[in-house]
Design brief:
The structure is a single chain. The chain is of the alpha+beta class. It has one domain: 2-Layer Sandwich (Ribosomal Protein L30, Chain: A), CATH 3.30.1390. The chain has two helices and three strands; from the N terminus they run βαβαβ. Strands 2-1-3 form a three-stranded antiparallel β-sheet, with no helix packed on it. The protein is globular.
């Protein structure tokens, strides 16, 4: 299964509460923190909502 690495590049402070919640639920805390998540529809949907705050990389298994 494919995986993606999500890195928080901009602060979630002063954003909409729903966007801050998504950042927290993805496991991102501070700027430059990264997590590896499965590449599925749910993860892609969450990333779409905060695409202006994160960078995404494909990770090889």
């Amino acid at each position: 299964m494919a995986k993606i690495k999500i890195t928080l590049t901009h602060s979630a402070a002063h954003r909409l509460p729903a966007q801050r919640k998504i950042v927290k639920e993805l496991g991102l805390g501070r700027i430059n923190s990264s997590v590896v998540k499965p590449d599925n529809a749910a993860t892609r949907g969450a990333i779409f909502k905060i695409s202006h705050l994160v960078e995404i990389e494909e990770v090889q298994d």
